Amino acid sequence: MIRVDTLHRHFGGFRAVDGASLEIATGSITGLVGPNGAGKSTLFNVIAGALPPTSGHVYMDGEDITGLPPHELFHRGLLRTFQIAHEFSSMSCRENLMMVPGSQSGETLWNAWFGRGRIAEEEASLLRKADEVLDFLTISHLKDEKAGNLSGGQKKLLELGRTMMVEAKIVFLDEVGAGVNRTLLNTIGDAIKRLNEERGYTFCMIEHDMDFIGRLCDPVIVMAEGRVLAKGTIDEIKSNEEVVEAYLGTGLKNKEATS
């Protein structure tokens, strides 16, 4: 699905991503973990077209997509969410979802005047789709609530719902669990798992909650200092001394020697 080949993203002399290479398999839920400043979000931004790479390449289904803008990647089925949800706060949850699909008939002046029947049919279809998504995410009771009034976890669910309004192939989730209470985090996890198993979504997620990662992700990729440090199952990652050192600043042997 996605292959990243020797990717660099520099900001002046700072190498936020420093030669990272990785693969995300079709149908997987891949975890991306690492200490703060490891380059995870910058890597997401480059893959998703928000930042151009300094060098290196990104491939999707074998095709070079390096540097393509987000709207082109969106139409190819590559979507991402953000650490802070980007909702339209004054619009209802249902309206937020209906805004997602591009090239709607009502966006042109000609159709606004002469294609009202087509617009009405399209809006009815979008309304049904939005209600299906809200029901899937178990937040149908919030369909008419302004998105700005939602809790942090509910906003994360709504943002996940936005990816369901189009034909997403792969979704990059940037700290979907940040600031979310345990009950809603479980709901989000259930939705991600169902989208993967029932609808064939491929996911790659940045997350600091290792229990959440362990529940959903295989494989798990670890980044440190802009590079890929390790890849494996959650148990392999937790027992990898280089990973422990990257997170805690000391290896297992040093910990044992001082205990």
UniProtKB/TrEMBL annotation:
TM segment ranges: none
Key words of the record: ATP-binding, Nucleotide-binding, Transport
Domain ABC transporter: 2-250
Gene Ontology molecular function terms on file: ATP binding; ATP hydrolysis activity
Cited Pfam families: ABC_tran, BCA_ABC_TP_C
SMART domains linked to this entry: AAA
Assigned GO CC terms: plasma membrane
Keyword DNA-binding assigned: no
PROSITE patterns in UniProt: ABC_TRANSPORTER_1, ABC_TRANSPORTER_2
Name of the protein this chain belongs to: Branched-chain amino acid transport system ATP-binding protein
Originating species: Roseivivax halotolerans
